[in-house]
Amino acid sequence: MLRIESVTGGYGRTTVLHEVSLEVPTGAAVALMGHNGAGKTTLLKAAVGLVRAKSGRVLLDGEDVTGLRPSARVKRGLGYVPQGQQSFGDMTALENLQLVGDRAGISEMLDLFPALKDLLGRRAGLLSGGQRQQLSIARTLLTRPRLLILDEPTEGIQPNVVAEIERVIAELTGRGDLTVLLVEQHVGFALRTASAYYILESGRITARGDGGSEAHDHVRSQLAV
Ligand SMILES: Nc1ncnc2c1ncn2[C@@H]1O[C@H](COP(=O)(O)OP(=O)(O)OP(=O)(O)O)[C@@H](O)[C@H]1O
């Protein structure tokens, strides 16, 4: 469903990604790991269209979207949750959801993220990091993406919320109606959530394999400096 073929790109004259290829099959979750500065966010942005590929191709459901701007990719079913649990801080959690979804959609999201039910009237800026992360994911899911791209969904959030996010991803991919690409530093979470992983180092894919706990040691050794 998402195919990145030999993409080279970066910012201005700075090349960050060097002939990166990666594939996320329909209905699967794939984790992208690597050290700080390896280019993980840049690769996600290349998938979203926020970073232009100087060479190579990005395909969504077999269609070449390399020349398409982000909004056109969103129309084709892509949803992006950037790093940092962003939402409109002065608006309530409910208002943040109402900007994107109708009543039925919001009710579905509250079933998926029950913790948000009691927080609807609270200003998003006053929520904890974990609560804001759930709100950001819910808001993106309200756009009904078929491909969800998450940048470090567990960064700086408490373990009980990490478990909630893990459950939601498993539930949605388990239904077969969502494909997920996530950047993740938390190896345990990444390998439990994803059926395959890629490791990016200095803008190049240096390892890939299947997810699951048996990959844990291999991934850790790959990530060790
Ligand atoms: N907007 C930008 N303009 C110029 N260079 C950038 C920009 N954003 C990132 N970079 C550079 O691109 C390289 C890769 O950054 P990127 O954020 O993709 O890495 P990352 O693997 O996601 O790291 P982190 O885990 O710290 O988020 C870094 O050297 C960074 O300084």
Describe this structure in words.
There is one protein chain. The chain has 225 residues and is of the alpha/beta class. The protein is built from 8 helices and 10 strands. The protein has one domain: Rossmann fold (3-Layer(aba) Sandwich). The strands form 2 sheets. It has a 6-stranded mixed β-sheet with strand order 6-7-8-3-9-10, sandwiched between helices. The protein has a 4-stranded antiparallel β-sheet with strand order 2-1-4-5. The chain is globular and about 45 Å long.
What's the structural blueprint in terms of helices and strands?
Layout: E1 2-11, E2 14-24, E3 29-33, H1 40-48, E4 53-60, E5 63-64, H2 70-75, E6 78-81, H3 93-98, H4 103-112, H5 129-141, E7 147-151, H6 159-174, E8 179-183, H7 187-193, E9 196-201, E10 204-210, H8 216-223
Bound molecules: adenosine-5'-triphosphate.
Residues 11, 14, 16, 34, 36-42 line the site of adenosine-5'-triphosphate (ATP).
Nearest-integer average pLDDT: 94
Assembly type? single chain
Q: What low-confidence regions span 5 or more consecutive residues with pLDDT below 50?
A: none
Q: What is the percentage of strand-forming residues?
A: 25-35%
Strand neighbour order, sheet with most strands: 6-7-8-3-9-10
CATH class wording: Alpha Beta
The assigned CATH architecture is: 3-Layer(aba) Sandwich
Residues in helix, % = 25-40%
In total, how many beta strands? 10
Family: Belongs to the ABC transporter superfamily.
InterPro entries: AAA+_ATPase, ABC_transporter-like_ATP-bd, BCAA_Transport_ATP-bd_LivF, P-loop_NTPase
GO molecular function: ATP binding; ATP hydrolysis activity; branched-chain amino acid transmembrane transporter activity
Pfam family, one: ABC_tran
